[in-house]
Amino acid sequence: MCLILLVLEKIQHYISVYFKELVQFLVSTNFTKSVLTVIAVIIPIAIGVLTGYTEIGVAICFGAFWCSPSDVHGSQRHKVLGILFSGALVMVVSFIGGYLHYSPWLSLVILGLMSFAISFISAYGFRASLISFSGLLALILSFAHTPDKLEIYEYSLLVGLGSLWYLGLSLLWFKINPKGQTEEVLYETIGNTAKLLKKRGTLIDQQSNRKKLQESLFLLQSQLTEQHDILREILILSRKNSGISVYNGKRVLVLAQLIEMLETSGANPVNYIKMDDQFKLHPEFITHFQNLIFEMANQLQLISEIGNKPNQIPKHDGLTALFEDIRIKILELDKIKEVKAYEAFIMFQNLLEYQEKQFDKLKRIKWLLSDHDVASEEFIDKEILKRFLISQDYSPSILLRNLSFRSTIFRHSLRLAVTLMIGFILGNLFSFQNPYWILLTIILIMRPNYGLTKTRSKDRTIGTMIGGVIATVIVFLIQDVYVYAVLALISFVIALSMLQKNYKASAIYITLSIVFIYGILQPDVMTVIQYRILDTLLGAGLSYLGFLFLWPSWGFQEIRKDVTKSVEANRVYLSKIADYYIQKGRVPTSYRLARKNAFLETSNLSSAFQRMTQEPHSKQKNLNKIYELVELNHNFLSSLASLSIYIQHHTTTEASERFNTIITKIDENLSMVLQSLSKEATGDQKPNFDAVISFEKQLPKFESDQVNLSADDNGALKRNHQEEQLIWEQLRWLFSLSSNMMKLTLSLK
To answer: Matching CATH topology for 180-386 and 559-680+687-702+714-747?
Structure first.
């Protein structure tokens, strides 16, 4: 009986979890956008069929569908401009594409030249790459449809009208649900911050698999940095109006707390080796600190799940009790008049204060997400906020700079153009039923990096085959065009909504929708399934082989640039921290900009390394050394964060000459790292490692054995000891990390 109840309880739990995920999926912007796209496609066709102007309906439908990829997360202004530019591009491409059917050889040349030119637009960044994809879609589908009754210029103008039709629907939906995008990205960011805290809490225990945890942390930090940038753009560039400005102001303040939490999560009073030593002596503190961090993570996770429901925000009581327990334990440690115990007391007290700062930020987030009013002077000035946005340079010089084989975008564009031309020749040479399916598969799969191209090739192939099998079963069981129409519509919506989240599942549903559409138009559906699978296999194979043999871009060729940018950003951040420690006062905007840039470039470095690990082993040159360099760089930023948080939230003593000397030496080490990475280091410039080791031995450190433990309890003295331990330990660690980075970069070939 107990076993049955246990099984029923598990089933109920799974149903509850999956139901919650289903609800989240149905209210997500991906799903609503896919529904919007289907509406934009279906209505013109339906009206065209009913009124006898089918070609006009199809042209408008194509225009709406082709420009929909530009409708992604970001400010409304950027969305509108993206859709308009996509509309202009697909209109021009449709006009040129209207003449492709006159001569196969002319079509081949135009396909190669235009696909290169359109793909090359991606040099202007992410949103430009989406506009480029719209143009490629229009180019490839020009082979699938040629207007019979309309003139080519009329057809292209109607395609442009279709893009305006989609833009109108998108703006209408924004009017209906102006906060939907912001809420989704914000609560996803809160949820990922919760995951980050959990991983950081797990890292405290030396028994954990730290290497694996660090790798997952690198990826999660990269994801969070991207989400912070998206939120900045949405909130800062949103239009000011009376109904939404207060809402945006509060969300900007929440974002500021989340950014602070990302920085604080990586802060440690000492490095992990010294922390492990103290936790070995006092293992009970591992559980205490983990419980504290996990509870904060759980509360953030709950906030991300409940969404905009202020009355369900968790209370502080549980966390307050955990903090009180750990304070009592640390005070008990202070009463032990022993050198080791006092050193542990200082370290645990500093670690506790970091967690108290996290708790303050969590409380602030809860308060901001509740129905409390916020004074207007608390809002951050919009002009200051705009300085934190990453602006894209759209000058023609960007294209000129990328017009060489050193450019990843240039090689990708050329590779894509040649692969499409090969696919076009094979499709026509062997008389495939729909040769454009091969070309469509290529533009959907081929990406500038190997890992993503390989993954999408595999997912596309598997998804298409699974979709083909499912479609075959359904076609055998059901021969009803109305059922096919309903299934095609549902499959198309699901396929579009899962395109970014799960490409394999999207490929399954897109195959189903295509098969059902053809099932309505022609009786021989099995032939359609057969050719669909064959075309996908050929397109996926060409994409994969094209990357391997046509001017491939490997990670080891670019990773030095990413490391250089990250080290440069950390160097600037170190300089700003040192300046602030010396001068005190208010934290300047330049300080926060340096911090943001350091986290951004470190995130970019993690992403670049992750791409490198997905490449063939023969192309993973210096992989272990690069990983060590990435890890050192992350640890360097973690140490900077530890320094930054402490000096911002504590009254510190005057900076000594020794402090300035050590900062200068660390900066010299980083300068040598940059010279090594740029391959400019000469024999005269190579460092004297004996001098480096000698200097490191002379670095000051907190000497707990010199503390007078029998003296009266003095809060100010303990505060000075906390500062002394944290500042000197972090400086020693920063010098050690920069020295190791210097040695490592000199050994790279």
So the answer is: yes
Give the distance, in angstroms, between the CA of residue 593 and the centroid of all CA atoms in the same chain: 19
d(CA 110, CA 115): 8
SS (H, E, C) 372-422: CCCCHHHCCCHHHHHCCCCCCCCCCHHHHHCCCCCCHHHHHHHHHHHHHHH
The pLDDT value recorded for residue 239 is: 47
Strand, coil or helix: 456: helix
Architecture of domain 559-680+687-702+714-747: Up-down Bundle (1.20)
Query: For position 317, what pLDDT does the model report?
Result: 84
| Architecture in CATH for domain 180-386 | Up-down Bundle (1.20)
Long-range contacts of 704-713 (CB under 8 A, 24+ apart): 704/339, 704/340, 704/342, 704/343, 704/346, 705/339, 707/339, 707/342, 709/337, 709/338, 709/339, 709/342, 710/337
Q: What is the pLDDT of residue 192?
A: 92
Could you tell me the residue ranges of all domains in the chain?
17-177, 180-386, 407-553, 559-680+687-702+714-747
**Average per-residue pLDDT in the chain?**
81
pLDDT in tens, 261-308: 888 887 776 566 777 778 888 888 888 888 999 999 999 999 988 877
Whole-angstrom distance, CA of residue 468 vs CA of residue 470: 6
Radius of gyration of the chain (CA): 29
